[in-house]
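ESCALATION

Customer reports they have been waiting on this structure for their group meeting. Please prioritize. Original submission:
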Amino acid sequence: MSDECLEEFVIDNLSFQQFIGLHNSDSVPDFTTYWRFKEKIIANKLGDKIWDAINKQLQAQGATIEHGSITLIDATIIKSTQKPLSKEERVELEKNWSSLFCGE
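Update from on-call: job pushed to the front of the queue and completed.
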């Protein structure tokens, strides 16, 4: 997820706000704040230490993440009343994909 998209998700999603510790009266950091934070983590070589700490907490709860990757799967099956997208519709959707999730 891009830093810009993360900012939009935090603005629009209460669970993201709660995850990063924001309260209703707090302002949402802009995308440059996320970028600068990541740059400081890289500059101080803290990435591995952070992942180790996260993995220890997860292991204490009986869960693990390997190689820092997370996959979310939604297995909800719903009946569709739409016909499959045409090739042109798929191409247009791919062009505008980020705007669907980041409001661009």
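Sent to customer with the following note: Residues 1-67 form one domain.
Escalation resolved.
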